[in-house]
Design brief:
This protein is an alpha/beta fold. The protein folds into 2 domains: about 160 residues, Rossmann fold (3-Layer(aba) Sandwich), CATH 3.40.50; about 120 residues, 3-Layer(aba) Sandwich (Rossmann fold). It is about 40% helix and about 15% strand. The strands form 3 sheets. The chain has a 4-stranded parallel beta sheet, sandwiched between helices. Helix 5 links the parallel strand 3 and strand 4. Helix 6 runs antiparallel to helix 7. The chain is globular.
């Protein structure tokens, strides 16, 4: 028998043991990315068991679900994914699973008028909403509503937890606005491995450039590298950034190209783009991730930000 996608899905549904049963009858949640998992854990608290498929340093654009992932998703009470073609290699499977199970694309909560278009994919939008805490707050509300839908008996707790988490995000938004506003206007350029920071740029008045496009699957040609080197030199930009989930090869090619023209460019720091930091660390939370990015960018580009960030917890 040939195991097609649909027969494999049917087999996974038959074999899956909801891990909520193992977790003292808590609501079981599978989230594709760490950022969504963080929101689900914050909203659900002790009433949910959350599993993130993609850990630190994992690129969601290229991620392919394993058989273990598929069984976990088939057995979960609810599956939360970003959508907007972020999980490009998993999209068809998630849509198929949604015909049988509770599967929610949380970015659908954001009105199209607030989304940025994608030059990489005609008719699609940039999926990196988490780079703007105010936009991400809308996603948190969608996560809350998805949990209420599958566990209505816990609605009061989910709403209270969500309110607390949303207050944290409001404080994060205030901090990021404050420290990024101290960067001199002429220095407000963030150049990194791929176009993950467009919502950041739109929110805080920065010009953002990616060597690759919105998807890390796109290729950066020699002409693109050459054009960016010339831009660095002509505009006297002296700091670029690497990302934790994308190879730094192209960024280092920029630095070498600028050096060949007698222009010194340094790595301004490491940014979290498509994945958070290590579990158990401050940077391994959504708040810590964005705090780290804002603090790093501000300090690297001549702004004023405390070295240890908003809560004094950055390493």
């Amino acid at each position: 028998m040939i195991l097609t996608k649909r027969t494999f899905l049917a087999a996974a549904l038959a074999l899956a043991t909801p891990f909520a049963a193992i977790a003292e009858d808590r609501t079981s949640v599978v989230a594709t990315t760490g950022m969504i998992a963080d929101a689900a854990a914050a909203v659900g608290g002790d009433l949910v068991e959350v599993r993130a498929l993609m850990g630190p340093g994992v690129d969601p654009h290229a991620y392919r679900a394993t058989r273990t992932d598929i069984v976990a998703m088939a057995g979960a009470d609810v599956v939360l994914w970003n959508g907007l073609y972020l999980e490009a290699q998993m999209e068809e499977f998630l849509q198929d699973l949604g015909t049988e199970n509770a599967v929610v694309a949380v970015a659908d909560a954001v009105p199209e008028t607030l989304l940025l278009s994608s030059e990489d994919y005609d008719g699609r939008y940039d999926p990196h909403l988490w780079m703007n805490p105010n936009l991400w707050s809308r996603v948190v509300v969608e996560v809350r509503d998805a949990l209420i839908e599958v566990a209505p008996e816990d609605e009061a707790a989910f709403r209270a937890n969500a309110d607390t988490y949303l207050e944290d995000l409001s404080e994060l938004a205030r901090y990021t606005t404050e420290v990024l506003s101290t960067v001199p206007t002429e220095a407000r350029v963030v150049l990194s491995s791929h176009d993950a920071f467009n919502y950041f740029g739109s929110a805080y008045g920065f010009e953002v450039m990616g060597i690759q496009g919105i998807s890390t699957e796109s290729e950066a040609g020699l002409q693109r590298i050459s054009e960016l080197v010339d831009m660095l030199v002509s505009r006297d930009i002296r700091a670029v950034f690497v990302e934790t989930s994308v190879s730094d090869r192209n960024v280092r090619a920029l630095i070498e190209g600028a050096a060949a023209q007698g222009h010194e460019v340094v790595i301004g720091g490491e940014l979290y783009s498509d994945a958070m930091g290590e579990p158990g660390t401050y940077e391994g939370t959504y708040v810590g991730m964005i705090d780290a990015n804002a603090t790093t960018i501000s300090r690297a580009l001549g702004g004023r930000a405390p070295e240890a960030g908003m809560q004094g917890m950055l390493n």
